[in-house]
Amino acid sequence: MFNPFPVVLADYRRNRLLVATTMALVALAVAMGIAVIAQERALRQGNARAADDFDLLVGAPGSPTQLVLTSVYLKLQSIPLLSGEVLERISRTRGVRYAAPIAFGDNWQGHPIVGTITAFANRDGHLPPTEGRLFTQRGEAVVGASVPLALGTRIQPAHGQQQTHDEEDEQDEAHDHHHALSYTVVGRLPPRHNAWDSAILVPVEDVWAIHELPSGHAEGEKHIGPPWDATQLPGVPAIAVKPESVAAAYGLRGQLRTHESMALFPAEVLNELYSTLGNVRDLMSLLALTAQVLVVIAILMALLTGFLARARQFAVLRAIGASARYIFIVIWLEVSLLVAAGATLGLVLGYGASWLLMQWIAPKAGFTMPVSLGEEELRLVAALVAAGLLIALLPGWLSLRRSIAEGLKN
After folding, report:
1. Sign of CA dihedral 399, 402, 406, 408
2. Can you name the residues that pair with 98 across neighbouring β-strands?
3. CB 126 within 8 A of CB 172
4. What are the ABC3 transporter permease C-terminal domain coordinates in residue numbering (predicted)?
5. pLDDT in tens, 91-100
6. Which of 71, 108, 214, 223 is within CB 3.0–4.6 Å of 238 for a Cys-Cys bond?
């Protein structure tokens, strides 16, 4: 006998329940580890990508986390306003490429309407519209990639961020001040895979005007964006600052940390979040490792039990001419193939579970989280397979120690 696979396959068919249980245990242990690692990485990458558009964020003194959640992730909530003088001063500060006010307060069918300037809308020329153009005057809007509005559509804002209004509601509120202004969609931005894909960007002057605030310009002026008139600037929730260089960014951050304002890199806040997530991940990884150890023990017990139950079968094979080496290879292959198949199945299940979970979380989080398999997951699978190959040596070694006569007695 030279080909061990017919015997291996025959044993698999004869012991379907043991085979299925072993594979399921291995797959579950691997899937748990893969899911923990892949989800944590996806969350990190998604967070980092969402913050890419914000080199330096300036807000009124308060909670940095609240400022980042509101400005970067559009988890809109009431935050203190920066004075208009701060915006005007930052706009003239050396080392600033642009200082973009970010003003909130209205929505269209749940899509937040954000007032800003064209320099921020196209990220200083790095984000040209895929359709149409940027807004050039008041009453125009540029929509994110996932906003279901065609170019040329006219919309009317509704007050607040979470409400949606149908046509009947809009007719009932025809005299509301928010319906005194409508926006015409003139462009669409490319996908950014973050919360801003669902935003509608308009001139900040319109957001100020609709809330009966000064326009930031002298009476009668029609242009939008800077330069501003400091005496006509209302407060703003946040300012997205684009520094001219990395050195300028650090200098501006220190310069703008005053009693009037706080300046931060969104990555600073994300690092705090990562440290918390890191602790959670360590706990989850420990639980996954514990599960894998228990699985290894369960596999070992099951295989030893199965080996003892089939001791007579192996003795018969040796009696009809099979060598001890052949029996060892058969037993080793049976165990190794089961562990390898279970680990591969677990890899697929873990990735699939992570992908489905991220699809569910992403709309709630406001940004996409790319799920991928990395080196860490592959090392996890390789380690479990290697453990399986070593485990497979034990029943094979026990088979070599048993004589044919002893096996036939069972």
Report:
1. positive
2. 242
3. no
4. 288-403
5. 989 999 999 9
6. 71
